[in-house]
Amino acid sequence: MPEHSSMHLYLNWAKERIDEMDAALASLEVKADQAKAESKVKADELITDLKKRRDEFQALLKTQAEAGEAAWARAKTELDQQWSGFEARMQTYFESAGKQIEQQQVTFKEIAAAQAKAWREAADKFREAAGKVTANRLVDLDAALKQMKSDASEAEARLQKVKQAGSESWSVLSAALAESRKAFDEANQAAWNALRGASSKS
Predict the structure, then answer these.
(1) Residue 150, exposed/middle/buried by CB under 10 A (0-12, 13-18, 19+)?
(2) Pick from 46, 25, 169: which is nearest to 104 by CA?
(3) I need a labelling partner for 109 at 20 to 30 A (CA). Which of 29, 67, 189, 201 fits?
(4) Are the beta carbons of 125 and 8 closer than 8 angstroms?
(5) Cα–Cα distance between 23 and 86 in angstroms, integer?
(6) pLDDT single digits (tens) 97-120
């Protein structure tokens, strides 16, 4: 079970990033379809680049899906770099795009929704895995699940606050998403560590 729980940790991490990439791309594609010819070319170039980065991320993820924990730990470093490249490209686009506040807000909302969905799915996977642990260890796991759900609610509330603030710069919006993403990673890690500990005591 310990290696299995580590795999869940990595898969949740990677899935959350892919969901964010997909949400950003969907938001940008809608805007690109509405753009005028000159800006449409730039938007199409951005979307092509971001899709390539997302596809490379997914390809690396796929090659690691069958690997063990040690291979995942090595691959996560490369996946982190690819994720950072995707984020940097988004940041550059929004900084150079000028006053596209509406697009920033739409993209932020889509990514925030993807994060909220990732929190729910991670909690569901954890609950399912925890159900396989003996009853005497369930108290610890219930506490970990409650903490994960509480952290998710707090993160969602913080994102709602930023969303309602309105015309923030992309760097402010991006920082809020990064903070929520970090909280997701920490909650995900804590929950799966609790499961690993409960499994080893069973």
Answers:
(1) exposed
(2) 169
(3) 189
(4) yes
(5) 13
(6) 665 777 888 888 898 889 888 888
Q: Give pLDDT tens digits for 130-155.
A: 777 665 566 677 777 788 788 888 88
| Distance in angstroms (rounded) separating the CA atoms of residues 120 and 125 | 9
CA dist., res. 110 & res. 108, Å (int): 5
Residue identified by tokens 């932020």 is: 108
What is the amino acid identity at position 47? I
**What are the b/e assignments for 153-176, b being 16+ CB within 10 Å?**
eebbeebeebeeeeebebeebbeb
CA distance 167 to 165: 7
Report the half-sphere exposure of 116 (CA within 13 A, side-chain side).
Answer: 14
Quote the CA–CA distance of 202 and 200 in Å, as a whole number.
Answer: 6
